[in-house]
Every structure is written in C-alpha cells, then in structure tokens.
C-alpha cells in the first residue's frame, strides 16, 4: 500500500484489495504513521496477529505485525493473538479513542472512550485475548487512534 | 416531481435536502475540510458513459452548492471522493444503507481524502448521505 520516509511498511495483501475494512485500517495506520511520529515506536514494537471482525458487515481482516511492517489480509489468517469483534460503527469509534497526553493510555474521561467501555461491558465490542496481550492492545489502540 | 439520478436537477434537489436536514446541520457544523465528490462509476448500459459525480460544496453544516459533473473534474475539485457503482448508490439512497458498513464491505471506496478526518466526522458523513433519501429520485434502472 505504501512506503514511508523511514523504514516502515504497510502492505495490503492481494487477498484484501476488495476488503474495505482492510483498506480502511491499512490506510489509517499509514496516515497515522506519516502524521504522528510518536506512533512509530508502538508500530515498531508490535508483533503477532490481530484480527478485526465487523460483524454487521460480514467482513474480517488480519493484521500481521512484524516490527516496522504490517501485512493486512482478508479474513482471519492464522491464529490471532487478539481478535476484535464489533459492529462497523464501533470499529470506527475505536479509532476515536481519546488518549491521555504523554501517558498514551485511553482517557476514561473522553466521550468515545467511555462509550466504547460501555459497549464493551454490554458485549457489543469484544476483544478476545486482551488480558493475555495487554501491551499489544494498548499499542494497537494508540496506533489506530486519530487523536 | 422526481429527478433522474444522477443529473443536474438531482444535484440541485440534493443540495436543498442537505440544507433541510437539521441533523446534518448539527453534525457537520465543524466541517471545514473541503468539497466532497460522490462518484458514480461509468455504466454504459444506463447511458453513463464515463464516471460522473455530484460535487458538494459543504462547509460548516451547509451545502453551498451541488453540481453534476464528470468524475474526473469532480475528483480534481474535491478534497474527498467516494466512488461506487450505480446500483450501490441506488441502494444507499433507497434503503439508507449505512455508509460506513458499505465502505467496509468494499461497496464504496474512498479514493481521495484524509481518512482520519473523515473518521472524525463520521456522523456528519452519514447525515450528508442520509439526506439523499429525502430527494424524490427516479432511477435509470
């Protein structure tokens, strides 16, 4: 999909070229890395697979992080460490999470963060594997956040 | 009176519908990020010989102009371009298809524009497109 002016790559696998969710998430990662150098450290440290499923849209994708590189594929590929399942509008909202400046954790006072928390409690947003992979979830949250 | 989609008359009626949508006025009040092109892919079977578009000059919750033009012109003038085949646009207008869901399904593509900005204004985008439901529309098939 694109190269940045430093050694990082966001690759869209041929399988995902018609997967709008994959293009959206891949594009978001690329634009966030270009515009927010602070996210590059998180990107470099991410390893392993994360799957995202937009249940209402019937679309799934997998991010395979390999340190400064991610491959975005259609469907669930391999065994993801973390799987996010939610409605499409909630997946978009995940990228609106407000972050605490310098700390980089989701800000519980933020409107989007609170809403996601409530949806998570109600079972509308489910993150499987989160407890076993807390650093991955936090890095991914920061990487995808447009804030 | 219904208007053929897409056409000059439809674009004009759509502009009125956007400006009469109080939910768009509210959700889009902070939008200052430029024009939006809704591009219908070429479909010679319904006399759309080349990509055509409705270009919306939207700003601060109002639609200042809406024009019907070629996709090429509209892409050049717009800050954001969303593209899809005729039948998907028809479905979006008739059934109020959720545009985010449709984007994720690959039924529409964002071919120009800053994705993080669009994400920040997702409700505004939804209301902009939902306004099309209030246009009396005649479809080509």
Characterize the structure shown:
The complex is a heterodimer of chains A (147) and B (141). Chain A has helices at residues 20-35, 40-45, 88-94, 111-121, 134-144, and strands spanning 2-3, 9-12, 47-54, 59-66, 69-74, 82-86, 126-128. With 147 residues, chain A is α/β, with parallel strands linked by helices. Chain A has a seven-stranded mixed β-sheet. Chain A starts with a strand and ends with a helix. The model of chain A has no long low-confidence stretch (mean pLDDT 94). By secondary structure, chain B is α/β, with parallel strands linked by helices. Helix content of chain B is 40%, strand content 25%. Chain B has helices at 8-19, 22-27, 71-77, 86-95, 99-104, 115-120, 122-130; strands at 3-4, 36-40, 52-59, 62-70, 80-84, 109-112, 137-138. Chain B has a five-stranded mixed β-sheet. Chain B has a two-stranded parallel sheet with strand order 1-7. The radius of gyration of chain B is 14 Å and the shape is globular. Chain A binds chain B through residues 18-21, 23-24, 27-28, 31-32, 35, 54, 56-59, 88-89, 91-92, 95-96, 146, and chain B through 98, 100-110, 114-116, 119-120, 122.
How far is the first residue's CA from the last residue's CA of chain A? 23 Å
Terminal residue distance of chain B: 18 Å
Assembly type of the chains comes to heterodimer
Q: Sheet bearing the most strands of chain B, described?
A: 5 strands, mixed
Largest sheet of chain A, in brief, is: 7 strands, mixed
Derived from helix and strand composition plus strand pairing, the structural class of chain B reads alpha/beta
Strand content of chain B: 15-25%
- Kindly report the average pLDDT value of chain B: 97
The percent range for helix content of chain A is 25-40%
* Element-by-element helix/strand order of chain A: EEHHEEEEHHEH
* Number of distinct beta strands of chain A: 7
Number of strands of chain B: 7
Our estimate of the beta-strand percent of chain A is: 15-25%
Low-confidence stretches of chain B: none
Most extensive chain interface and residues per partner: A-B, 23 and 18 residues
Mean pLDDT of chain A: 94
Total of DSSP H or I helical runs spanning 4+ residues of chain A: 5
Order of helices and strands of chain B: EHHEEEHEHHEHHE
Radius of gyration of chain A: 14 Å
* Largest sheet: spatial strand order of chain B: 4-3-2-5-6
